[in-house]
């Protein structure tokens, strides 16, 4: 059974029958219904691959994810972001394709060969070759959290100002800070060091902005950033936060303030320290339900909304929202 048979059964031209499936907006509703009824009667089903080749559209959004793919489902905030993307896909009748990267030379080709109409990128490092590849591709692309790049729209918070605000609030009581940081770069090397030993800039823009904000707050409080203990984790998980806190434990004062770059890391640190260091206070990021239950002071980070904004921009890059910067607040 072919499309010509469907066209003959419906009493229309083969081009009109084709448009009824590939460009339905160009066909009158009554004609479109007649074509589809004829297809049902004849048992005809259009070839999805052929339709994509003819129309140049796959009706898929590709999400480029540099973390281990399971992280997208294990981390509550990543899951919220992807839920926002998925909501828009459902509303607009689009599919969602995951494109995991592995940090190897094949990443750029793997991303560009994906059969998608546009890209949504999870935040990555400034030196990630995928950025240059996607920026040079004609398909629309949006990145959550940065880094900003010509040819790629960016949806992000002002991480520097939010980090400064949350750290300043935690330091008002005279506590002594320690920091649990996201990875510095794509090598994801774990280390325990001090502010003095950190590089001047971190290639991961979110990490860099938050470290700069914490440093500003610590120095404004009259404390030494160079002597502040910093644990850098490989991944944003509670286990990484727990391990980092255990390594920091010998350096903690009774009135320490654990400044973590996420609620997940803060929750892991609390699990490690709540019995041995019960007076420690915690700062986080994301204002998660679990963090709020423990009274962790945190930065709101509506990742579901960011996912929706990214998906909308990937689908309709010609009509960006008036404000692509995500509002934030500090909450306990």
Describe the structure.
43% of the residues lie in helices and 15% in strands. The protein is of the alpha/beta class and 332 residues long. The protein has 3 domains: 53 residues, lambda repressor-like DNA-binding domains (434 Repressor (Amino-terminal Domain)); 121 residues, Response regulator (Rossmann fold, 3-Layer(aba) Sandwich), CATH 3.40.50.2300; 141 residues, 3-Layer(aba) Sandwich (Rossmann fold), CATH 3.40.50.2300. Strand 9, helix 12 and strand 10 form a beta-alpha-beta unit. The mean pLDDT is 90.
Strand content: 5-15%
Structure class: alpha/beta
Instruction: Label the overall shape.
Output: elongated
CATH superfamily of the largest domain: Response regulator
Number of domains: 3
Q: Averaged pLDDT, please?
A: 90
Strand order of the largest sheet: 2-1-3-4-5
- The tally of strands reads 12
What is the count of helical runs?
A: 14
Order of helices and strands: HHHHEHHEHEHEEHEEHEHEHEHEHE
CATH class of the largest domain: Alpha Beta
Fold-level CATH name of the largest domain:
Rossmann fold
CATH architecture of the largest domain: 3-Layer(aba) Sandwich
Instruction: Determine Rg (CA atoms, Å).
Output: 25 Å
Low-pLDDT residue spans: none
The end-to-end span amounts to: 64 Å
Major sheet description = 5 strands, parallel
Helix content: 40-55%
């Amino acid at each position: 059974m072919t499309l010509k048979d469907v066209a003959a059964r419906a009493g229309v031209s083969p081009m009109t029958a084709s448009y009824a499936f590939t460009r339905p907006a160009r066909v009158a509703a009554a004609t479109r219904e007649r074509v589809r009824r004829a297809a049902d009667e004849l048992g005809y089903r259009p070839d999805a691959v052929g339709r994509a080749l003819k129309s140049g559209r796959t009706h898929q959004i590709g999400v480029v994810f540099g973390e281990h793919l399971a992280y997208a489902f294990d981390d509550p905030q990543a899951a919220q972001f992807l839920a926002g993307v998925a909501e828009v896909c459902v509303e607009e009748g689009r599919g969602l394709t995951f494109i995991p990267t592995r940090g190897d030379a094949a990443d750029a080709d793997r991303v560009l060969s994906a059969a998608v109409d546009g890209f949504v990128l999870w935040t990555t490092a400034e030196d990630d070759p995928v950025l240059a590849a996607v920026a040079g591709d004609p398909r629309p692309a949006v990145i959550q959290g940065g880094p900003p790049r010509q040819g790629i729209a960016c949806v992000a918070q002002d991480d520097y100002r939010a980090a400064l605000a949350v750290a300043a609030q935690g330091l008002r009581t005279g506590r002594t800070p320690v920091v649990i940081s996201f990875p510095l770069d794509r090598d994801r090397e774990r280390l325990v060091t001090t502010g003095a030993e950190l590089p001047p800039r971190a290639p991961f823009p979110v990490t860099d902005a938050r470290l700069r904000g914490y440093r500003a707050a610590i120095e404004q409080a009259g404390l030494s950033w160079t002597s502040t203990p910093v644990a850098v984790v490989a991944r944003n998980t509670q286990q990484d936060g727990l391990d980092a806190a255990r390594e920091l434990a010998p350096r903690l004062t009774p009135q320490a303030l654990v400044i973590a770059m996420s609620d997940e890391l803060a929750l892991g640190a609390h699990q490690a320290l709540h019995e041995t260091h019960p007076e420690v206070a915690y700062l986080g990021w994301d204002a998660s339900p679990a963090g709020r239950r423990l009274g962790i002071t945190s930065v709101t980070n509506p990742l579901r909304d960011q996912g929706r904004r990214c998906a909308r921009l990937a689908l309709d890059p010609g009509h960006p929202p008036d404000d692509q910067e995500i509002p934030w607040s500090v909450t306990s």
